[in-house]
Design a protein that fits this description.
It contains ten helices and 17 strands. It is an alpha+beta fold. Helix 1 packs parallel to helix 3 and helix 2 crosses helix 5.
């Protein structure tokens, strides 16, 4: 009977939709929630188990014993039918997680579907209102301490404000339309954390926040995305929603340590934290700096932007794997510590070079070139 039941499960896995995790899309799921009737991966199964058996009852496909009634439930539902029920009203602005996404995003997606049933009842989607108020822990600009700050989101004003004192004027005013937000658990060191990136006085500014409740931080993340989509729909009424979604906040293409020299041959290598945000390659002294030390625009390869690999030594034993980013204004000499790290950077930069420019990209390029020309003499003396 056991072998027979396992054969039935293996046959069910071959049905459309059942060969990937119902929640994150990971291939070859080896777990299932037998009361919900879905096939899931091990990572998502741990979240289901955490919700409690009154929500989801989890079993391994091979290692656990299956009852006939449980098999009937799996036959009756399956991933495709479950998605139609539990994802019937997912807003376009809601980020559907993939298998390698941050844990907080996957966990809250699963809880939103089955525990809170947000996508069966749109009135439970508070992040669609265009407004949100609450308190987040914010990292100081000059030090590493986190302080409680009140944040206020208002889509009608295109603003996200934060206050040092609740009844005083805001300390900072961010434009939602120019804001990028990403989860940053590894960098900040807190599972429920975000990085807000925006322009301030012509320079990129980073703000780091977290909240102890994962549902709250995910609600803020989603509220910003939804407000941004609504603003894009007003600004570009004839543009299809599917195209506007690509302009919503996204994770950085890559981050990590690289070695960099200044513009002169005599400049020494300095270790910098690099972040590729769309077409902006920023470098910082430390990962949690409030401002980047410099910004490099990566344009299209047809406009003189290219990347060159060097296999010769460069005088720095830590910077063993050099490469050069060529722009119309300057050649930036960079290096990675390992071959694998360099290959990763080359891949994402090459993808960026080949991606067509948008009108927004051209505006960013002009602003960065203007800023770099203004500060060029200072950068030469500082060796940046």
């Amino acid at each position: 009977m056991v072998d027979h039941n396992q054969k039935i499960l293996q046959e069910l896995l071959k049905k459309p939709g059942n060969n990937v995790c119902a929640d994150c899309g990971a291939e070859d799921p080896d777990w299932a929630s037998y009361n919900l009737g879905i096939f899931i991966c091990m990572r998502c199964a741990s979240v289901h188990r955490g919700m409690g058996a009154h929500i989801s009852k989890v079993k391994h496909l091979d290692l656990d014993r299956w009852e006939v009634s449980q098999l009937h439930r799996m036959k009756e539902v399956g991933n495709v039918a479950a998605k139609k029920k539990y994802e019937q009203q997912v807003p376009a602005c809601y980020r559907r997680p993939k298998k390698d996404d941050p844990q907080v995003l996957i966990e809250q997606w699963i809880r939103a579907k089955y525990e809170r049933e947000e996508f069966c009842h749109c009135e439970r989607q508070s992040y669609l209102s265009g407004t949100m108020e609450g308190f987040l822990m914010k990292r100081g600009k000059e030090d590493s301490r986190y302080q409680l700050r009140k944040f206020v989101l208002n889509e009608n004003d295109d603003t996200l404000k934060y206050h040092v004192k609740e009844n005083k004027e805001p300390k900072g005013v961010l434009k939602i339309s120019e804001l990028n937000v990403s989860f940053a658990p590894q960098k900040i060191g807190h599972m429920n954390s975000m990085q807000l990136t925006f322009m301030k006085d012509g320079s990129t500014r980073h703000i780091y926040v977290y909240h102890e409740d994962p549902e709250v931080i995910n609600a803020w993340y989603t509220a910003i995305r939804c407000a941004k989509l609504h603003l894009l729909q007003v600004a570009f009424p004839s543009t299809p929603e599917s195209d506007l979604i690509h302009r919503l906040p996204k994770d950085f293409a890559r981050e990590g340590w690289l070695w960099k020299t200044g513009p002169r041959l005599s400049d020494v290598h300095r270790r910098r934290w690099f972040t590729l945000d769309d077409r902006k390659l920023m470098y910082h002294d430390e990962p949690l700096d409030a401002y980047p030390k410099g910004e490099i625009f990566i344009g299209h390869e047809s406009n003189g932007y290219q990347i060159k690999v060097s296999n010769t030594g460069n005088g720095c034993k830590e910077a063993r794997f050099p490469f050069h980013l060529v722009t119309p204004e300057r050649v930036f000499s960079l290096a990675a510590t390992t071959h694998e790290d360099r290959a990763g950077w080359l891949a994402v930069i090459q993808q960026t070079l080949r991606r067509p420019l948008t009108p927004q990209d051209s505006t960013i390029e002009a602003n960065l070139v203007r800023k770099r020309n203004t500060n060029s003499s200072m950068n030469i003396f500082s060796g940046r």
